[in-house]
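Q: A reviewer asked whether we had any structural model of the full assembly, not just the individual parts. We don't, so I'm hoping you can provide one. Inputs are below.
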Amino acid sequence: MSANLDVAAANAPGSNLGIAIRRGLTDGAGVVAILYIILFALYALWDPSALTVSGVTNLSNNAAPLAIAAAGESLVVISKGFDLSVAGIVSLSNVLMATYPVEGPGGALVSLMICLGVGGAIGALNGLLVAVLRLQSIAATLGTMIMGQGLALVIMDAPGGTIADWVSYTLTDVLFGIIPISGLIMLAVVALWLVFRRTDTCMGIFAVGADETAASLSGISVVRARFTAFVGAGLLYGLAGFMLSVQTATGNPSAGTPFLMLAFAAVALGGVSLTGGRGSLVGAVIGAATLMLLQKVLFSGGVSSFYTGIFQGAVMVLAIVFGSVISRLASTGARA
Amino acid sequence: MSGAVCALDVRSVSKSYGATVALQDVSIELQAGEVHALLGENGAGKSTLVKILSGVVKPNVGTMQIGGERYEPSAIVDARRRGVATAFQELSLVPNLTVAQNLSLPRQAKGRFGLVSGAATQKQGAAILNRFGLRLSPSAIVAGLTLAERQRLEITRAFACNPKVLILDEPTAALAETDWLFGLVRQATAAGASVLYISHRLAEVRELCQRATVLRNGRSIGTVGLEDATDHAIFEMMVGRSQAEEMQRRAATGQSTRPAVLEAEGLAGGSLKDISLTLREGEILGVAGLEGQGQRALFRALVGLAPLASGSVKVDGAAVRLSGPDVALRTGRAIAFLPEERKTEGIFPALATATNIVLPVVGRIGRAGLVSERLERDAVAGSSSEVDLSPRYLDFRVGDLSGGNQQKAMLARAMQTGAKILLLYDPTRGVDVGTKQSIYAAIRRFAESGGAVLLYSSELPELVHLADRCLVVYGGRIFAQLSGADINERTMVAALTGHSIRDTAA
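A: Here is a predicted structure for the entire assembly that you could use as a starting point for your response.
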């Protein structure tokens, strides 16, 4: 017996870099990042203005709303849920900003707080319904999405209104003549994620997404993990609505509708498993940026905008196929 | 053993879910340093008691004390704080996390700024693995581990909490050897911990435990000192009737002249190095092996679930290429496979038991392509009585059945296909004594009626009991072929560890 215990465990942890690379690729974030670089090269080839500060700023401004919304969606998807309320929250934030514009930097802060407040509140409601009352996430968030859109229509029944000038000019601008502010905001979201990744709550979200029973028997609070995911998602949708308003400078009660499908597309493209427990917020952000870049590439390549959807769908399917092939190769490699 | 305050004292605990009474008036006492067995058939209430002790569910009535103080755990972490840790039967490891991360759930080791540190978690995990003699990489993802490795990790995680009361629910279900576990248990009890040990293997229980409490139909029937109680007496307490059938060899019936139905030649690939076998009509061919010797790959290869690098398979004398279980079911006299993990590879928990049984042949029981519920019931009647599955379970969701009844349903499904060749992979894993007898009887009847069975079991007495011939696999090869009187535990144990029979037989 003692011989059995004395055996020093053969704990040779594989090289950390190798693991990081394999994780990056199997996470899907690696695959979509490579795709983004290829597309950007194509874009720069067809349209040299892409490499100018204004070209990059344009791309960044364009991508920010969807990227931040997809970031929020990825939180819920990792916890093995679906959150449709993104469409409601984005619309609601947008019409609130267009109906009650507040000027100046202080006004921007007030508007941001209102957007985050709305998003956080609806997120908390989702969390209450799904995490605490254990309703199915699609059904519950479908309800809150419709509520959000309905509320947006009550506040503003037709497109109109204006966003405060300070907000729409300053936040679409560049810092020090080179860094787009919208890009900084996306970076801030990613930085927050990288910190959050290193909390027990985030590990709980991954664990619950993979196997709820095992997670709860391991001492993880399933309710807290799910609730946190929904509230975090709601806050990010609020921020996405804010960034969309910055971009469009006007209000539209159905502004959030396209976000519903595109956010899921970005999440899937970014390698986040729709069955939960696998993926990264970074992947979703790059996935969203890729979808928006693709539109530009097709436009600059002279493809009629009618074909955009076909290409977006095809690229998405290809990226997912490629990602799953890679992760299968990696897992058989790890087992052999 | 008396006088001192009990380490754990459970008094008159009851639990019901709606109208279903899971536990009624259950009492059990654990002394410090004691290994106490909890025995009972599947569905006797053992799992419910484990859940109550671990803080997963709360009892309706009754009191619990630890070291003389009230114990009412509000959650599993609360139970751990009070010194109660559990290794669950269904394994509570999170598949997408690493070994080290699982070991430190729910709180990971922290580095700077109170953030989770991967390196510190890894180091902490490696230290735990080392301390308990587990050879696993702390950075390995749990989903990639074998069932036995996961079971060991589950056990290690419970031990790592340094519990005062340790609950081990079927800890050896996936382990082929018990030395490692028993060593840990003895160390822990020597240090004053008490262990509640739940197992269907009475030999193990006798080796490790001093006393046993028996549950039947949710009630505690009594506590006995194991030294004074015969197997027969214990079985009788568990099942309430005399079930203690003697384990005896069935007479060999001269199958060697009957036609071969399944022949494999030089199978290799994955963990298989070189395996050849011949299965004849009316024969039960046993396969024995320590965990990870290639038996799993062998069974999976024979139904096309695992790729083969080389080798050939013949069914009814004709060479075939089996690319999956569906093809296996349509080949020759048909091969049906009963997989290892009924929870993940077998049952569809949300479907009715009857539907689960007819699934492979669902196309045959309909009218005009539509499935008829009445025809389904008629079709199932035969196979369910064959495995002694009570008809009242057929309408229940199979996920709500006890493990033993689920296993009967799985066996019924394999028979329902009409296959004449059954590949049974550990068909009695984690099932109770009564169910085991039903399964043995069903397997024997199947062989007597001209079927052929390839049977792997992690319990040697079962092979001794059932097999006409027995192959011992070791390192991906057939190490020994035993028949007749050579099929006894002593010879098999020697062969299992790669010792030639002649060396030890003397």
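A: Points you may want to mention in the reply: Residues 242-249, 502-506 of chain B have pLDDT under 50 and may be disordered. Chain B is about 35% helix and 25% strand.
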